UniProtKB/TrEMBL annotation:
Database matches in InterPro entries: CFAP91, CFAP91_dom
Protein name: Cilia- and flagella-associated protein 91
Upper lineage: Eukaryota, Metazoa, Chordata, Craniata, Vertebrata
Residue ranges annotated for the CFAP91 domain, each copy included: 4-42, 57-113
Organism expressing this protein natively: Hypocryptadius cinnamomeus
Family the entry assigns: Belongs to the CFAP91 family.
Principal cellular location given in the protein's record: cytoplasm
GO cellular component terms, semicolon-separated: axoneme
Taxonomy, superkingdom: Eukaryota
TM regions (residue ranges): none
Record-linked Pfam families: CFAP91
Keyword annotations: Cell projection, Cytoplasm, Cytoskeleton
Subcellular location: Cytoplasm, Cytoskeleton, Cilium axoneme
Length: 218
């Protein structure tokens, strides 16, 4: 307002006004003396202005708090972004390794095909060398490949012996009846001892040494 502008404008050029001397009677407190402290440097305008500028100081404090909060939020966001980038990078590395492994596998397969074609680059038909196949234990005779239609696990029981007389109890009984009785009584002769045995059944030390020397000699 015009009044406020006048106070600001006059306050910067104001000088100490005339203050005449006065005497206060004992026991009296004149009300007018309350204006004695309102001088140039201690006027009411300064107190009003200080109250007016208090929200500005509060705003500065709020701005500092907002700055700290924004800084903390930015740090948390940076950590989250770094974590996401790390996970994304690891996923790309895993995909790259899988792709490289597939490329290497395909390359080895193509090299084997090229080597096989190079052996017969003229396209001529080769006669089967049976002797060479049976000498090479890695040939198709001993280790046929499943990609040409041979699956060894399907015929794993092809060479298993299946006999009625050996796999069933009734067959064993029938087989036992067909065997002549002269086969059952066994005559086993006890071997003669190679060492000298005493009457008590022990072997002397000299006899053990003779056996050891005979084995060394052989």
């Amino acid at each position: 307002t015009l009044g406020t502008q006048t106070d600001y404008r006059d306050g910067e050029a104001q000088t100490d006004p005339y203050s005449p001397e006065y005497i206060v009677r004992s026991g009296s407190v004149p009300e007018i003396l309350t204006l004695a402290t309102l001088t140039w440097e201690h006027c009411r305008v300064h107190s009003i202005l200080s109250d007016l500028f208090f929200p500005c100081r509060l705003q500065k404090v709020q701005m500092e708090v907002f700055k700290k909060l924004l800084q903390r939020r930015e740090e948390n966001q940076n950590e989250l972004n770094a974590m996401r980038l790390n996970n994304h990078w690891q996923n790309h590395q895993k995909a790259k390794e899988e792709k490289i492994g597939k490329i290497q596998h395909d390359c080895a397969l193509m090299l084997r095909k090229l080597i096989a074609k190079r052996k017969n680059w003229m396209g001529k038909l080769e006669r089967r060398d049976i002797i060479r196949e049976y000498n090479d234990f890695a040939s198709q005779t001993y280790a046929p490949l499943s990609r040409i239609g041979f699956f060894p696990d399907n015929n794993s029981d092809y060479y298993a012996v299946k006999n009625y007389y050996l796999n069933t109890f009734a067959g064993l009984c029938e087989l036992e009846k067909s065997v002549p009785p002269s086969v059952f009584p066994l005559k086993i002769k006890a071997p003669k001892p190679k060492c000298i045995i005493t009457k008590t059944g022990y072997i002397k030390r000299s006899g053990r040494l003779e056996v050891v020397l005979a084995q060394v000699h052989q």
